[in-house]
């Protein structure tokens, strides 16, 4: 166990450079301070805090995990353009038709900012949609559908997802909408 301070990032602060340096990030929430030391309690870690994964590659996707992990990936747009981003590491129980949404994909825009392709609420979707189209300088038909995958050797499986458009919940928080 790590008893000295580690690099910590909120998911909202993870950058392209973070993923270039450490291609897999593990959720850091839920440890007890006595396991890791006073630095952990002082860091105010919460559910959206991640640290670089320090295991051996490839990351074993066949084993259920207690913590979510994120992996660097490439996203091929409908027009063939490639952008960098990241998504949740696939788990054995989560592989299904809805997996691309559960993967919580984010792409990095040319200016270095990132844009999520899944939003819990329509208002966030509208903001992300405007940012994505402006940031990539493309219309929806040149972006969606997009395919994504982790770089070879990062995961124990070859995994590819397809995102048909932005996903968000309807007001009832049960129905999922896919929109462009």
How does this structure look, described?
This protein has 180 residues and is of the alpha+beta class. The protein has a domain at 56-179. Helices cover 21% and strands 28% of the residues. The chain contains 6 helices and 12 strands. It has helices at 16-21, 33-36, 38-42, 99-102, 122-136, 140-143; strands at 9-10, 24-27, 49-52, 69-76, 82-88, 106-108, 114-116, 118-119, 146-150, 160-163, 166-169, 176-179. Strands 1, 2, 3, 4, 5, 6, 7, 9 and 10 form a 9-stranded antiparallel sheet that branches. The longest helix is centred in the C-terminal third of the chain and has 15 residues, at 122-136. The radius of gyration is 17 Å and the shape is globular. The model has no long low-confidence stretch (mean pLDDT 86).
Please give a quick description of this structure.
With 180 residues, this protein is an alpha+beta fold. The protein has helices spanning 16-21, 33-36, 38-42, 99-102, 122-136, 140-143, and strands at 9-10, 24-27, 49-52, 69-76, 82-88, 106-108, 114-116, 118-119, 146-150, 160-163, 166-169, 176-179. It has a domain at 56-179.
Core attributes:
12 strands; 180 residues; alpha+beta; single chain
Helix content: 10-25%
Radius of gyration: 17 Å
Stretches with pLDDT under 50, minimum 5 residues: none
Instruction: Calculate the terminal CA-CA distance, rounded to whole Å.
Output: 44 Å
User: How would you characterize the largest beta sheet?
Assistant: 9 strands, antiparallel
Oligomer: single chain
Gross morphology is: globular
| Helix and strand run | EHEHHEEEHEEEHHEEEE
How many helices? The count is 6
- Give the number of DSSP strands: 12
| pLDDT averaged over residues | 86
Beta content comes to 25-35%
- Global structural class: alpha+beta
């Amino acid at each position: 166990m790590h008893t000295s301070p580690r690099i910590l990032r909120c998911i909202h602060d993870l950058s392209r450079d973070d993923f270039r340096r450490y291609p897999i990030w593990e959720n850091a929430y839920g440890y007890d301070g006595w396991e890791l030391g006073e630095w952990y309690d002082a860091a105010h870690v919460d559910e959206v805090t991640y640290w670089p994964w320090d295991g051996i590659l490839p990351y074993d996707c066949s084993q259920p995990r207690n913590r979510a992990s994120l992996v660097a990936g490439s996203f091929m747009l409908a027009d063939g353009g490639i952008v960098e981003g990241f998504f949740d590491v696939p788990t054995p129980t989560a592989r299904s038709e809805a997996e691309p949404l559960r993967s919580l994909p984010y792409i990095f825009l040319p200016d270095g900012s990132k844009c999520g392709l899944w939003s819990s609420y329509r208002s966030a979707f509208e903001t992300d949609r405007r940012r994505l189209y402006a940031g990539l300088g493309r219309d929806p038909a040149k972006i969606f559908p997009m395919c994504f995958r982790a770089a070879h050797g990062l995961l124990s499986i070859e995994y590819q997802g397809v995102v048909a458009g932005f996903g968000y919940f309807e007001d009832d928080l049960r129905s999922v909408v896919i929109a462009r």
